[in-house]
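Co-fold these.
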Amino acid sequence: MKINNLVAAIVIMFSAAWLPTEASARNVIRWASQGDALTADPHAANELTTTSAARKVYDSLVYADKDLNFIPWLATSWKLINPTTWEFKLREGVKWQDGSSFTAQDVKFSLDRARAKTSDFKKQIDSIENVEVVSDHLARIVTTGPNPILPNQLTTIFMMSKAWSEKHEVAEPQDFAAKQETYAVRHAMGTGPFRLVKREPGVRTVMVKNEDWWGLADYPHEVDELIYTPIANQATRVAALLSGELDFVLDPPLQDLERIKRTPGIKLVQTAQDRTIFLGMNQAREELLTSDVKGANPLSDRRVRLAFYQAIDIDAIREKVMRGYSEPAGMITAPSVHGHTESLDKRHPYDLAVARKLLAEAGYPDGFSIRLDCPNNRYINDESICQAVAGMLGKIGVKVKLSAIPKTLHFPKVKNQKTDFYMLGWGVPTLDSHYVFSYLARESTWNATGFEDPKISGLIDEIGVQVDFAARDKAINTVWEHMKKEVVYLPLHHQVVVWAMKDWLDVPIVADNGVRFIYAKINKP
Amino acid sequence: MAAYVIRRFLQALAVMIVVAFASFLLFNFVGDPIDNMVGQEATRVDREAMRDSLGLNDPVAVQFGRFIVNLLRGEFGISYGLQRPVAALIGERLPATLELVFVSTIFALLLGIPLGVFTGIRRDAWSSRLILTLSLLGVSLPTFVVGILLIYVFAVTLGLLPSFGRGEVMDLAYWSTGLLTVSGWKAIILPAITLSLFQVTLILRLIRSAMLEVMRTDYIKFARARGLSERVINYGHALKNTLVPVITVIGLNIGTLVAFSIVTETVFQWPGMGFLFIQAVGFADVPIMASYLLLVALFFVGLNFVVDILYLVVDPRLRKQHIAAIGKRG
Amino acid sequence: MKWLQRQANPYRWTGDWSQLLDGDLAYSFGRSPATVVAAGVTLIFFIAAVFAPWVAPHDPFDIATLDLNDAFLPPVWQGETGSWTYPLGTDGQGRDVLSTIVYATRISLTVGVLAVLLAAVLGGGLGLLAGYVGGWFDALVMRLADIQLTIPAILAALMIDGIARLVLPAGDQDVLAIYVLILAIGISEWPGYARVIRGVVMAESGKDYVSAARVIGIHPVSIMLRHILPNVMGPMLVLASIGLALAIIAEATLSFLGVGVPPTTPSLGTLIRVGDDFLFSGEWWILLFPAFALVALVLAVNVLGDWMRDALDPKLR
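Predicted complex below.
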């Protein structure tokens, strides 16, 4: 008897699968990109793919909209009530996806959580000293010193429900030392436009529309379901797009853009990104780790760095490696970032003869050998760019050994200062030069050049607290000029992001490469 | 007899312990596990504290012991990259691989057996020779080349079948199956064909050579003399006798299947064990790699053990031989 | 079926080459067109690999000669930019595809041949010892061989390679990759050779001449070698040819998966992996020619090996 029941059950299930699914009044968007979010815990990993995913389920106090303007979100207004205290008025009537109400308690809880020992965002908001709950919809943030741009720094700090987090024992961001995976790694509950239905890391993430989202009136998007698949293999990703299995691809490979353009039913949109790709050179070490030069560090000589710089034919890279989709850079930050100037963004000219002469002047007429460390799965065509760079440096006698490895191995190398010459890309969520300076122009875990100048550091500190914007801008400009003159870094290009999507889908492209489906328009025939 | 079984079992156990130790070394000493666990701003004091709390400063023997106990309890550690217990990950991905291997074996049998019979009974026809040479193509075409080709033709150019993934899956208790949905079947066809090609060659040749041998035996001649139709002879009598070695060989070749499934899964983004492993290699995700090593070793040692026992049970001659051999070696 | 017409023992060879050419082996070789073609193809590949610097029109790894502006040129018969300078086109860094294929074949064959040699020496040595010493050593070696026979080369190679990757310092990985691969693939193929040699050793070691040698004071092993070698030549050759094809595919697969030879000294598998990214972009030559070369090479070796097996195995005649 039992067997019969089993067979019956299987037959029924099978037939059910054959039945046509409900009429497609539902808008399902199947989309993909190269990597997956590292976790669903919004405070555990400060990385673009992860924060972008978090932004769909969770809301922040301040939002970076599609033009990267900072607009009120869960906070409706904010003001300084004294030089070190910001007061945030919170939106009323916002409900968590489990039905409970959003209050200032949740704000305090979330900001404390984001500053916890195991949070990856604590550096971003380390100016916060304390958070006070004034009433259900009023919160005060006390900072250690004056911080004029605090609201800008809150766009990727997401709000979590205190009650939910405590109930599921995730009051602290995911802690790797614990042997159990925490609940927040695969589950999320926020106030945001989508609910997380299923998360299979590395395989698929499914989200559905949150019909009770407070922002639906202003952003009446029609996306009912989002199915995300990470597809690392470039050819597979393109194949799925061309065959119609995907509706949206965040990072179509550059070499296939022409073909995608020619394919009916699919369109491309592009824009300059706020991320710049550059090379870092260690100029502080006594002796390089990976070079055949003993007893001296050739990169500590400005002429050698400049020689490297002028040996790079960035236009050839742009045309052949990036297929025209990049903007050669003279600064390590993009045009959309405050503090960028056209004049400083002009590169030193490409000139092999001058480069060879500089090297000879510095005492290396026959060049030397060195290792270049690059990621191979993080930036657009990162490995190919490095191969091209290695080839170009070879022409002036510098023998480059290339080590292109996954980002999870490359970034620790940089952060642990185990590299002489490396590639890095820097995006700027706050859209202000101070963000770049604090990580790259002074001692920090992300600065493996060894560059540290007390005068510059002093200027950076001043920039951090300066409320007179004219003086602030002048200081910013001074720092940039110094960086360029001293060739502290070797800028390559500003990335251009291209998104591919079906013709019936309209998602405006955003310069931080974070896709915001709340702006999606669907024009299905 | 019992002595033989116990001996084999102990040998298997010894091998497993060696592999476990290798896996343990991998786990704890290759690539500093702490580096992967703490955030970028951890200080040296923090790291030492974490080392202590994880027991990394205890003597090696103690750590190994703990490792074994954990293994037996089913705790395989937490993946660095996916931050989930490896055991859970493996449990999730295993059905995908097993289904793929199963379906591809069926395909290989469906294609290989008839072809093998045909080339066996018509061994000198030029069509036979052609099939044989073409079959060499089956083992000469690397799996990934076939996969890429199939995707290009069937998924992109013709748009008939999906180019990645498993399609819709249904969850039945611990097993998530793609075989109960239309999209699941559509998704499994191309990967299964890719994986089956080299098996087809193997099965084909095996059946062919077995058929050649059987066809010369006396009882087939007598069957013909009795006037039985060719079809009955070929499929009824001859084939039955070839199946035992075929099954044995397929069983022993499961290993190759597992290996090539890694490639197939990578090309088709099939969320199985192989793909998990490759992703782990790219991520330097030591817990997954070490666990995979262990599981694979366990699988093969277990397989060998089972085959040994089966041989002993099935072939009485072996039993006698082994006893004699053991006696001789002393 | 005999190798040579006039000997009683089919595998005993007296060193007379003319007998070889008159024998059945050569006869069956000439009769099968597929085999002749295969042999020719294999020869071409080997020559190209050994004499790569002379055969290839360019040196694709001399960075000084590369020009990024020459990247993505199509083969000579296509488009306006195809030219005889780069007959099969160029890849993404400006390297001539024909030259990269020649050098990549060199790498693929080097890994393949050395891996097979390693397997033969390792397996042969272990088999010899096991057969001669016997006892628990023999049991241990055979047990290991049994287990390893079920573990496919690719899986074993993947494991060894993965571990090596973690253990070796990052900067040297590229240079050492070839050696790791040879080691990995070679180690995974030894059981076959061990079995063959052990079998013959065990058969011979009971014979009278061995005891006689011991009495005289000559080491039995050196005597046995003269009797063993002719007996194992046939099976070893068959194993080697199959093994070579397997090794080439294993290396190609590992390189395709990204854990083999790096793009700076690519093998055919690496070229295919890199070319895969251009499957849909219109630069088909970067993928197609290396893939074709790989398949042709492996197919040729397989056909040769197949013929050899048929020729040396009396049962299938």
